[in-house]
């Protein structure tokens, strides 16, 4: 354990809270980072199943640490700008998990920062976290091919298994991005649960959205296949048939959706690369308009 650092967990949504509880249950030092505007309190109690843990809180990075941040896509850039202002961040390592992609990831993230991709499902009811779907996770560095941080990986794997090291996490992230682009906006447009998409969305619609993603990924050196992406989306939609996607939940609760980092990202990054992505652009526009109409009601 010689090179181990204490954990700082950022993002108190379901996944961040679950990870904080699981790390603390391993006897590891864990602090929760509060938002700057959050009311002052020195600790928070979180519960999962029959276990409760009381975790100290902080507003900033005051010491070198391992940071686990599971946040909404639109919170990533402001969070990174805030972290970069703290001198202790220089000797800290960031593990980041969020849906979608940002155009300026390469400038915001350092090469050794890590992406954590997961299929675990969880939700929060006040201070109680429900680990609803046991999945698996992958971890890899922003810059492909860097060495695996052994102790950090071991601790994350013990906290929430199984975890696989992925030296090329970018391809896995693109796969997840594609599945989210194929499922989430359609659940808002059709206002339906994931499983109903299998009847609501035509094969041609999914094909066009997937082909545009494949074309952009290719420009970025990532090889994907439209048929595989669609198969994967179909499997996820049937495995989570009764669920409302995170985007539909955000839409129904009047929150900002992540559309600009999913289909919106595909549309804008394609335009920058000299490609067109009309199906993704139209979906992004539709979700933004539906959200605007909802806010005006
Ligand atoms: O964002 C979500 O809701 C999930 O990632 C997914 C895979 C679409 C399942 O609901």
UniProtKB/TrEMBL annotation:
Residues 7-141 form the Ketopantoate reductase N-terminal domain. Its EC number is 1.1.1.169. It comes from the Bacteria. Keywords: NADP, Oxidoreductase, Pantothenate biosynthesis. Pfam families: ApbA (PF02558), ApbA_C (PF08546). GO terms for molecular function: 2-dehydropantoate 2-reductase activity; NADP binding. Pathway: Cofactor biosynthesis; (R)-pantothenate biosynthesis; (R)-pantoate from 3-methyl-2-oxobutanoate: step 2/2. GO terms for biological process: pantothenate biosynthetic process. It is an enzyme of class 1 (oxidoreductase). The keyword Nucleus does not apply. It catalyses: (R)-pantoate + NADP(+) = 2-dehydropantoate + NADPH + H(+). GO terms for cellular component: cytoplasm. Residues 168-287 form the Ketopantoate reductase C-terminal domain. Catalyzes the NADPH-dependent reduction of ketopantoate into pantoic acid. Belongs to the ketopantoate reductase family. This is 2-dehydropantoate 2-reductase.
């Amino acid at each position: 354990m010689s090179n181990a650092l204490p954990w700082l967990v950022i993002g108190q949504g379901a996944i961040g809270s679950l990870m904080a509880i699981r790390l603390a249950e391993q006897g590891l030092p864990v602090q929760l980072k509060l938002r700057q505007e959050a009311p002052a309190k020195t600790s928070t109690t979180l519960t999962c199943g029959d276990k409760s843990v009381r975790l100290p809180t902080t507003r900033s990075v005051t010491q070198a640490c391992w940071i686990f941040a599971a946040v909404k896509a639109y919170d990533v850039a402001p969070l990174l700008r805030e972290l970069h202002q703290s001198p202790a961040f220089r000797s800290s390592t960031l593990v980041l998990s969020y849906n979608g992609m940002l155009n300026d990831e390469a400038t915001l993230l350092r090469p050794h920062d890590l992406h954590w991709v997961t299929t675990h499902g969880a939700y929060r009811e006040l201070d109680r976290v429900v680990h609803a779907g046991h999945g698996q996770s992958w971890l890899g560095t922003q810059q492909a091919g860097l060495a695996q941080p052994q102790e950090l990986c071991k601790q994350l794997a013990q906290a929430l298994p199984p975890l696989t090291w992925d030296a090329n996490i970018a391809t896995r992230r693109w796969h997840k991005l594609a599945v989210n682009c194929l499922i989430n906006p359609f659940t808002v447009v059709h206002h339906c649960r994931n499983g109903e998409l299998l009847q609501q969305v035509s094969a041609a619609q999914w094909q066009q959205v997937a082909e545009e993603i494949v074309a952009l990924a290719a420009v970025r050196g990532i090889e994907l296949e439209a048929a595989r992406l669609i198969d994967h989306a179909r499997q996820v939609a049937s495995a989570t048939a009764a669920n409302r996607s995170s985007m539909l939940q955000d839409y129904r609760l009047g929150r900002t959706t992540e559309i600009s980092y999913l289909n919106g990202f595909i549309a804008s990054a394609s335009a920058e690369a000299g490609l067109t992505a009309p199906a993704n652009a139209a979906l992004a526009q539709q979700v933004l308009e539906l959200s605007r109409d909802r806010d005006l009601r």
